[in-house]
Amino acid sequence: MVLGEIREKVKKELKKLGVEKELKRSEKHGDFFIEAFDLDGEEIAETFKVEGVKAKAEGNYVNFYVDWEYWGKRLLDKVLKEGENYGREKMGKKVVIEYSSPNVAKPMHVGHLRNTILGNSLCRIYEFMGNKVIKINWLGDTGTQFGKLILAYKLWGNEEELEKNPIKELLRVYVKFHEEVEKDPKLEEKAREIYAALEGGKEEFVELWKRFRELSIREFKRIYDLLGAEFDEYTGESYYIEKAKKVVEELKKKGLAYEKEGSVILHVEGVPDTVIMKKDGTTLYLTRDLATAIDRYEKYKFDLMLYVVGSEQKLHFRQLFKTLEAMGYEWAKNCKHISYGLIRLPEGKISTRKGRVITAEEVINRSVEEAGKVMRGIGKFNQEVAEKVGLAAVIYSILKVDPEKFVEFKWEEMLRLKGNTAPYLLYSYVRAKHILDKAELKEFEVKGLKEQERRLLKKLSLFPLVVKEALERNKPNFIANYLYGLCDDFNRFYEECQVLGSEKEEFRVALVSCTKIVLENCFKLLGMPLVEKM
RNA sequence: GGGCCCGUAGUCUAGCCAGGAUAGGACGGCUGGCUUCGGACCAGCGGACCCGGGUUCAAAUCCCGGCGGGCCCUCCA
């Protein structure tokens, strides 16, 4: 990391001069600065000596200006040598990331879409930085609705439709069940019996349930392939029903739970009391999550576990972590809830009123359609490209904002040809790619830098630091914002500096090559598709 | 009633963890350039830290109190 290397040198020199101030990064006034309210800035600037870095006393600060003619050559050599490994580290931690987690027999909706995109990017960032990532998809595959579903399918299900379009067919019979139950309330009771038999292990029902589960996963995978998301494990709540009951015993023994009117209440300092076992002896979500966490630690001995789950479940995770801590599990402090806000769709209000849920697939399809419209508008339609641009627009709109904030989908805005949009980023990449298609990388030297070249060099040097910060704070939006800034700087450069045929061609080809490498890295970390032409 | 999150121009957003120099961008609006190394481009103009206190030499940033929006508080997940 060139910028890190420079930083260390500056720090060391300052220490030698007896200055113990924090060295901060700067955008406007050089590359680094220290505050010098109580120091003699002039004196520091005069005695400071590091090759390739100038110190200037300005105002109450000492600013450090990196000489990019000196460091630029080293930076570019490094990026060219390391290629897609530029910015990588060897953190060597074991990280469990639970994400996506849709419900069996139900379509993925926009919430799952944000979850999957965010989780996927986090996985990629952790892997990039040299961690072993275990990706877990925790399916919602239990609950009384499965009794209803099995009954409904046996009564009205269509085998052929189930194979062809499983979730649609399951949803159809599920809806029909709710219509029919109005006329015949006995159905409700039958469904409950079936669910009990299912938990009891009755083979016919278990087989059917397994089939629903497999078919649902098959369908989810279509979207995962599209998004480039992968999982090491598809486990579900059902797996932990028995283990959860043992956890209830453990909690009682440790004095963290008490019985009340036939149910078991969890009592942990710092979080509100809550039920962990119902009167009928069945467990709840929190109980199963406790069992899951303990099981995962035994299995993986992780250094960090991330739960990518919507912000409405913040209390749930506080309770989960606090309880694990109270139970004496040291590793509880290494569990984190990555929470995120809602997505608001332009057609959202109308659709909820109709009682219709908008699926993840519909959102992507719509975006592709809109991308196609835009392309037709400028006479450059191409289906394959439209599909990628549309998908990239969905991913980028989600990842460019802080996870904690709402995401608002506005088709015109996210597919706009200008501004902080996926099409703009992709277009920048295409520009870089096409210059390089016609050029050859040769020996180069860095001198006589123009402002645009200097800015681009500085931006490239920043990449490793940005990835590190994104990881530390679990915010892919840091990378998204960096990517936009990089494209901006590259386009300014492109506008001002002719590459091919110029007298600085060798250097500029190297600069564009490095830009392309870093662009590709950013796209990869965000899980966005690239296009070669637009 | 209690708790958590968010609040930056007409609209969207960065910065807040770790307080410092003129709050960085984007869209839309207005003005101009260029038709390329594929213009889905570039340059310029105007406009913002929800309110009130406090801490500090210094607050968008930290603390307290409001207001507005969202979410969560026992037998759903």
Note down, in words, how this protein is organized:
By secondary structure, the protein is an alpha/beta fold. Among the domains are: 2-66, Gyrase A, domain 2 (2-Layer Sandwich); 361-526, Orthogonal Bundle (Isoleucyl-tRNA Synthetase, Domain 1). 56% of the residues lie in helices and 11% in strands. It has 20 helices and 14 strands. It has helices at residues 2-16, 41-47, 68-82, 110-128, 145-156, 159-164, 166-183, 186-200, 203-227, 241-253, 285-300, 314-326, 348-354, 360-377, 383-399, 411-414, 422-437, 451-473, 477-496, 505-526; strands at 24-25, 32-35, 53-58, 61-66, 94-98, 132-139, 233-236, 257-260, 263-266, 274-277, 304-308, 335-338, 343-344, 407-408. The protein has a five-stranded parallel β-sheet with strand order 7-6-5-11-12. Strands 1-2-4-3 form a four-stranded antiparallel β-sheet. It has a three-stranded antiparallel β-sheet with strand order 8-9-10. Helix 4 (110-128) links the parallel strand 5 and strand 6. Helix 14 (360-377) crosses helix 15 (383-399). It starts with a helix and ends in an 8-residue tail after the last helix. Mean pLDDT is 90; it is low at 349-354. It binds one RNA strand of 77 nucleotides through strand 9, strand 10, helix 11, helix 12 and helix 17.
